[in-house]
Amino acid sequence: MQLLTTLALILVIMSTIPNQSAGTPTSTTTPDIPPTKTQLATFGGGCFWCTEAVYQRIPGVLKAVSGYAGGNVVNPSYKAVCSGATGHAEVIQIEYDPSKVTYRNLVDVFWEAHDPTTLNRQGADEGTQYRSIILYRTPEEKKIAEESKAAAQKHFSQPIVTQIVPFVVLYPAENAHQDYYDSNSDQSYCRFVIAPKLKKLEKHFGKKR
Fold it and tell me: Using one digit for the tens of pLDDT, what is the confidence trace for 148-203?
């Protein structure tokens, strides 16, 4: 699958980064090297508990925040979003290090992290809040998303229905929804829906954390 190829490439890149602790003398002074500038990416692929857990385990991803985007209500609640009345989708906002993982890598993983061919539904989760959506910040991100979508379509028998739209604003979800899988791994949804996806990832590439 394309996910396995993409993640294999990511780990090959990671393996080439020198190990500073393996017998290399360390300086007593801090080198004057500017910090790496991180970037953001925002995706929605069904329940954000699921997509958050997947991306948290991608090397180069520093943080994933669950939230709401793409709607027309300011600072909506989870209950309001679940009603479908706000127009928002459940999304995750990823902060990543572009020197370790590219935007194209993240988009390529996106197609395999959920089913992008089911309109407003992922498994038993149904409603516009569960729609497949990519929210781009720049024309370059839009181009990358569209090219990746075209490549991914070859692997699906049904048309991809993912929206590719401009990013406007993210409203972070309530604290109970952040790091959901790591905090609730014994919960039934985590065991029967999220864990199988993570096992597929970890079986081939190991855990990030």
Answer: 999 999 999 999 999 999 999 999 999 999 999 999 999 999 999 999 888 876 65
The sign one gets for the Cα dihedral 196, 134, 143, 156 is positive
Residue 50 known to be catalytic: no
Active-site residue (options: 47, 50, 82, 190): 47
Residue 137 structure tokens:
């910040």
Q: Is the pTM of this model over 0.90?
A: no
Average pLDDT score over the chain = 85
Compute the C-alpha angle 107/38/152, nearest 5°: 5
Spatial contact of 76 and 68, defined as CB atoms under 8 Å apart: yes
- Please state, in angstroms and rounded to a whole number, the distance separating the CA atoms of residues 152 and 202: 22
- Report the DSSP pairing between strands 132-136 and 163-166: parallel
Mean pLDDT of 123-147: 97
Q: CB–CB of 98/138 below 8 Å?
A: no
CA separation (Å) from 25 to 21, 30, 143?
Answer: 8, 13, 44
Higher pLDDT, 6 or 129: 129
What count of residues does the chain have?
209
CA nearest neighbour of 83 among 127, 41, 46: 127
